[in-house]
Design brief:
mainly alpha, 5 helices, about 75% helix
Amino acid sequence: MWRLVFPVLSYVLLAAHVMYHGFGLGVVAAVLLLNGLLFVPRPWARTANTMFLVLAGAEWVRTAVALAHERMLMGRSATTALVILLACALFSWVSAWLLHNRALGGWYRAGGGRS
């Protein structure tokens, strides 16, 4: 179960991201509620979280491209921002991948049995 720390942190990062971009507290709450779905020991919950985390990574990449474009138009360097945002994308994708390791896979298949 300690492996769920990574997806939880991915969702917290995503919640901070959507809050920074002004999507409102409802969207932030929805993202944070996805953390609860991590602890539902059913195969569909693992699939849903995997999908959401892959999409979260895609959102980080989209943001990185938009920010890099904006900074280049202003004549500023985008390297630091790109590294940070792409690291967030990678972290989200690794978190999605970790949901499919043997211990968590068994927990989700067994309906919450011992991991």
